[in-house]
């Protein structure tokens, strides 16, 4: 694809790391790089939970883990008609969702 540096005419080489791949000049700072990290979804989502049985410690502990709040904060949260467990980015929300689902809860993401 390339064999010489456009800037100094030196040799170039292909390098790949965890997050970057591309062509780099061995001689100067010239490079053509393409990141290979997938574009992160930066939108913020909310996750709500329905079907909570307040007497079920499995439910309560799953919600506590999903939102990182203690039981006291949770008892206030769960008085709401549609408790919002967490607001965060896609990866936080997906993690919370899997915790909630594994406890048999019914998470809703919006
Ligand atoms: Zn160069």
Task: Give a concise summary.
This protein has helices at 57-67, 71-77, 90-102, and strands spanning 12-16, 20-25, 31-35, 44-50, 84-89, 106-109. The chain is of the alpha+beta class and 110 residues long.
Distance between the termini: 45 Å
Radius of gyration: 24 Å
Shape: rod-shaped
**Total beta strand runs:** 6
Low-confidence stretches: none
Strand ordering within the main sheet: 1-2-3
Residues in helices, as a percent range: 25-40%
Structural category: alpha+beta
Overall pLDDT, averaged? 86
- How many independent structural domains? 2
How many helices does DSSP assign?
3
**What fraction strand?**
25-35%
* CATH class group of the largest domain: Alpha Beta
Predict the CATH topology of the largest domain. Ribosomal Protein L30, Chain: A
User: Considering the protein shown, what is the CATH homologous superfamily of the largest domain?
Assistant: Ribosomal protein L7/L12, C-terminal domain/Adaptor protein ClpS
Q: Please provide the ordered H/E string of secondary-structure elements.
A: EEEEHHEHE
CATH-level-2 architecture of the largest domain = 2-Layer Sandwich
Distinct bound molecules: zinc ion
């Amino acid at each position: 694809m390339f064999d010489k540096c456009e800037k100094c005419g030196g040799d170039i080489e292909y390098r790949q790391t965890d997050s970057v791949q591309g062509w780099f000049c061995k001689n100067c700072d010239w490079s053509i790089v393409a990141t290979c990290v997938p574009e992160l979804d930066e939108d913020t989502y909310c996750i709500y939970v329905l079907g909570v049985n307040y007497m079920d410690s499995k439910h309560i502990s799953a919600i506590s883990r999903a939102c990182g709040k203690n039981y006291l904060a949770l008892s206030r949260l769960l008085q709401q008609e549609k408790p919002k467990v967490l607001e965060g980015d896609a990866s936080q929300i997906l993690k919370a969702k899997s915790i909630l689902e594994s406890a048999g809860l019914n998470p809703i993401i919006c």
